[in-house]
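User: Design a sequence. Structure:
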């Protein structure tokens, strides 16, 4: 007779399931906190990527349609209503058209338009930077949160070993290895947050460069009636339509 080899599947007694089943409220709370930090980090990453993509497309639309319009009014109408570039252009035109009154008579047109456009750009930059501090915080704190869960788990494991009076390798390695899962989870949460933060900051700089370029050209047009060094084949809105001081 031949003996048939049989395979017996045994559940891992020291895995994540055991950590949740055997952990106290502190261990479970730490694990939940890490999961929430991870989910929120990925939410910020995806939403920021979407916002950056939308702004890059808006910048391309402004480059293609805004500077080829016959007038500044038509140029603004060519941009989508939800475009950040349209909002900046409207603020600039509004400032140029309303350079009057007891306050503005002490500020020349150049400075008045500059202040208005800079405020619009600052508001946009603030919006683009929102959420990145969350990634930085998660990236710097998640490893320590995981380490706290590991230290707490090792403490309870040693207490249980001391109470039972058994210090064999199978009694020590299991609980300690189970506690180390917390450190691994903390690193798993922190690494994508740090990488996502650096990546989004670099992409933000590219978007901000496009916004500054558009704002500089718009400022030159509103003040002087001409765009700064327009690209070959691209025009500017008719100078006659430029707002006058």
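Assistant: Done.
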């Amino acid at each position: 007779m031949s003996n048939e080899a049989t395979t017996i599947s045994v559940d891992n007694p020291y895995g994540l399931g055991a950590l949740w089943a055997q952990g106290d409220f502190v261990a479970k709370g730490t694990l939940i906190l890490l999961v929430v930090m991870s989910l929120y980090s990925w939410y910020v990453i995806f939403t920021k990527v979407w916002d950056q993509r939308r702004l890059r497309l808006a910048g391309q639309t402004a480059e293609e349609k805004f500077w080829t319009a016959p007038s500044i009014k038509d140029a603004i109408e060519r941009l989508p209503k939800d475009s950040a570039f349209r909002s900046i252009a409207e603020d600039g035109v509004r400032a140029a058209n309303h350079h009057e009154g007891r306050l503005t008579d002490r500020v020349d047109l150049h400075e008045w338009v500059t202040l208005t456009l800079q405020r619009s750009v600052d508001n946009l930059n603030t919006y683009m930077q929102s959420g990145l501090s969350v990634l930085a915080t998660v990236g710097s704190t998640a490893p320590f949160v995981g380490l706290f869960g590991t230290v707490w788990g090792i403490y309870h494991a040693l207490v249980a070993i001391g109470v039972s009076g058994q210090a064999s390798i199978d009694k020590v390695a299991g609980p300690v290895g189970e506690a180390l899962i917390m450190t691994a989870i903390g690193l798993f949460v922190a690494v994508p947050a740090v990488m996502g933060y650096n990546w989004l900051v670099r992409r933000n700089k590219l978007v901000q460069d496009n916004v500054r370029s558009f704002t500089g050209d718009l400022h030159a047009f509103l003040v002087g009636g001409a765009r700064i060094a327009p690209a070959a084949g691209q025009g500017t809105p008719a100078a006659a339509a430029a707002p006058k001081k």
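Helices lie at 16-22, 25-65, 72-78, 84-97, 101-104, 109-129, 132-164, 169-224. The chain has a mean pLDDT of 78.
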